[in-house]
Amino acid sequence: MPLSVSIVIPAHNAAATLAGTVASVQAQTHADWEVVIVENGSSDDTRRVAENLAAQDSRIRVTHSEARGVSHARNVGLRLARHDWVLFLDADDWILPAHLSSLTSILAARPLLDAVHCGWRRVSPSGDTLVEQIGPNDEDLFPVFARTCAFAIHACVVRRSAVLEVGGFDVSLRTCEDWDVWQRIARAGARFALHPEILAIYLARPSSASMDGHQMLRDSLKVVGHAFEHDPRVPRPLPAYANGLPADTLPGVRLDNLLWQAGLVLGSGQDATSLFTALPREPFANLDADGAACTLFDAMRLPTACPSCVAWRLHARILPQLQRFLAALENHTGQKGLGRSILAQLERQVLKSANTPRPFTAGHTHAITIEVTRPFPELTLPAPVDRLHCRVELEGRPLGELELPVCDGLVPAEILADAVAAEFAWPILGRFFADTLYPALSVRRESSGWSVHRGSHLLARDIPDETLPVETLHDRVGWSLFLQEALGPCLNPPWRASTRPTPSNAATTRPT
Questions:
Q1: Which of 90, 252, 287, 391 has its CA 20 to 30 A from that of 504?
Q2: Residues 238, 141 contacting (CB under 8 angstroms)
């Protein structure tokens, strides 16, 4: 039997977006739902838009409330909800047509669950994808919610009684209020399930409260703090979580949250060093530079809804503030070289995602494309460039990427050539053989798979179907062909070619 869902939509000054949000609900393949719009003190036409929607669809109800914040509005809607299952949907976000049917199907099949969540996508006002995320696949999510908010609020259908039991949304929080609710119901033993498909769309708006990094840090530190102590708002916590998680991991969790908020502040073009005043000086394990760079890369693009493909422009614009923040981070952690490592990883991400023609420079890294069939360039690069990122191509087809240091502003052509040969000699040889030798090989079907022959010489056998066509067999037959070409067929008789060990990894077995 299909489950009924109450969808609570707080709406404050949402006249421009509310109809689109409701339309995404009306487009659901699951039709057993109601919408409760809580219009809370709008100064625009939100009330009129909401009442018109309700007049056109009997499944939509409208109530009015004071402008006391989104948590208060959600609590009003939660109390008015008629169904056992609830979805909280903001008035400028939307859900894809299979959202309710997918999540309620899981709930119906697993009656002991208290919530099901799906993946979500952040998009810019122009529709560009900024970030896509799939949450964790665990029933017990309290250890996750102790560190971070695992999913967007409208990516989850939750048992109404579970939210009511822990007191609903905390009206003292301006941001992170959804994270706080999920953390409390998880501490109380709520069981979660994941549907690993992106079905919720989150609109990134520069004016939203979630873009205020300073406020987000204050609120996130409160939420994190609750997870490491007794929380009186949870009347019946799981015994294992009654007093929260061990305090020795708290410093690292605080720092992780500071990094996300710093990305928001930096992306807004502001100085993020003042954020450290909110953190106590405390010992913690070493911070992972790769993870920190990923966090900053995702967060810094949100305030301006910057797609990853043009993040290099944003990076260039905020580089001075970014360097000051990383210097302060290194000073705060006492982790020597941390700032430089994070900056290098961040620039790699910026370059990898850029769709602009090369050459161009991102901070300390200069990006070029090398076509191996053309003469290699002599490069003279200005300060502060100290790394060269090369996208290597052969006749316009990508071979891979490599990174080289820049010494005294110079990268000689012979250094480039040696580096490309060391990294890509084997695939380059494969491309050459694909144009010259591979078309002359014969492939035969045998009982144990395919075999490959060069004239009367057996090069390889027992090849599974998915490995064909011949052009993809370089790792199986390339070494034998290379020896035949280099030494002559008389030095490579059939028995040796057929029994010679074949390379299993091009990176470690390419000829030199």
A1: 391
A2: no
- Could you give the CA distance from residue 275 to residue 259 in angstroms, rounded to a whole number? 9
pLDDT at 467: 57
Query: Residue 452: what are its φ and ψ, rounded to 5°?
Result: -120, 130
Separation of alpha carbons 397 and 9, rounded Å: 49
Tell me the pTM. 0.81
Note the maximum CA span of the chain: 92
Distance between CA atoms of residues 333 and 325, nearest Å? 12
| Distance in angstroms (rounded) separating the CA atoms of residues 167 and 114 | 16
- Of 44, 184, 30, nearest to 106 by C-alpha is 30
End-to-end CA distance of the chain: 67
- Distance of alpha carbon 185 from alpha carbon 110, whole angstroms: 18
Give the number of C-alpha atoms closer than 13 A to the C-alpha of residue 287, restricted to the C-beta side.
31
The DSSP code for 43 is: S
Closest CA to 195 of 151, 234, 233, 162: 151
Whether residue 39 contacts residue 62, with contact meaning beta carbons closer than 8 Å, is answered with yes
Reduce the DSSP state of residue 98 to 3 states and report it.
coil
Rounded Cα–Cα distance for residues 458 and 499 (Å)? 9
Instruction: Locate 45 and state its tokens.
Output: 């036409």
Strands 192-203 and 115-123: parallel
Q: 192 vs 18, 150, 305, 479, CA distance in Å?
A: 29, 11, 31, 52
Cα gap 440→372, rounded to integer Å: 25
As beta bridge partners, residue 454 has: 457
21-74-127 Cα angle (round to 5): 30
Residues 6+ apart with CB under 8 A from 205: 92, 125, 211, 305
Q: What is the reported pLDDT for 1? A: 63
Which pLDDT band, with edges at 50, 70 and 90, does 226 fall under?
very high
Q: What does 41-101 look like in DSSP terms, one character per residue?
A: S-SSSHHHHHHHHHHH-TTEEEEEE-S--HHHHHHHHHHH--SSEEEE--TT-EE-TTHHH
Homologous superfamily of the 5-210 domain (CATH) = Spore Coat Polysaccharide Biosynthesis Protein SpsA; Chain A (3.90.550.10)
- Do 34 and 104 form a contact (C-beta atoms < 8 A)? no
No. of helices (H) and no. of strands (E), the chain: 16, 18
Copy the structure tokens of residue 318: 């905020």
- In terms of phi and psi (left: phi > 0; alpha: psi -120 to 50; beta: otherwise), the region of 464 is beta
Q: Do residues 253 and 147 lie in contact, with contact meaning Cβ atoms separated by under 8 Å?
A: yes
Contact 226, 244 (CB under 8 A): yes
The DSSP output letter for 279 is: S
What's residue 472's pLDDT?
A: 64
Highest mean pLDDT among 94-108, 265-279, 385-399: 94-108
What long-range pairs does 449-452 form, CB within 8 A, spacing at least 24?
A: 452/476, 452/477
Domains of the chain by residue range: 5-210, 250-356, 361-433, 437-509
